[in-house]
User: What shape does this take?
Amino acid sequence: MNDLNQQFEVIYRDNYEKVMRLCRGYASGDAVLAHDLVQEVFVKVWESLAKFKGNSQVSTWIYRIAVNTCLMRLRKKKRYLFQGELQNEVVAENEGQSSIKEQQFKKMYQCIAKLSSTNKSIILMELEGLSQKEIAHVMGMKHEAIRTRIHRIKIQLSKCVTHGGV
Assistant: This one.
């Protein structure tokens, strides 16, 4: 096995769960869509690994790829839905069988889904535990702006979860 393969395996193993949680947030909790997004992300990581110069941390680079991949996929999905090329799928879920924690996560994902794409990216990385400086680097924004945005986003989400609207 060559160095690139070994490097990819380490990157995949160290970052898979984080990327999955980020993608699941973009997919509003849809596990199948999140899995597809994660696969796309790691295909892009593999394709670009030889070109990675190390100007940032590997995790920051992967988050940037993940955010861009999720945003691109969701834009395409919205376009298809708008054009009527995609049929609506209705999934009936028995709320009575869902645990309270699952319902809370579902509600939080629904509220996160209502945020702008930039705010969604920021809060998902914040929830993932990235430092505000890392989020600023990934988003190409100033640290102070990220700190302010996170505070405002948390207020929005709190209102959404308790009152049902962002």
In short: The longest helix spans residues 58-83. The helical segments are 3-26, 31-48, 58-83, 100-113, 117-128, 132-139, 143-163. Residues 7 and 152 are 38 Å apart (CA to CA). The radius of gyration is 17 Å.
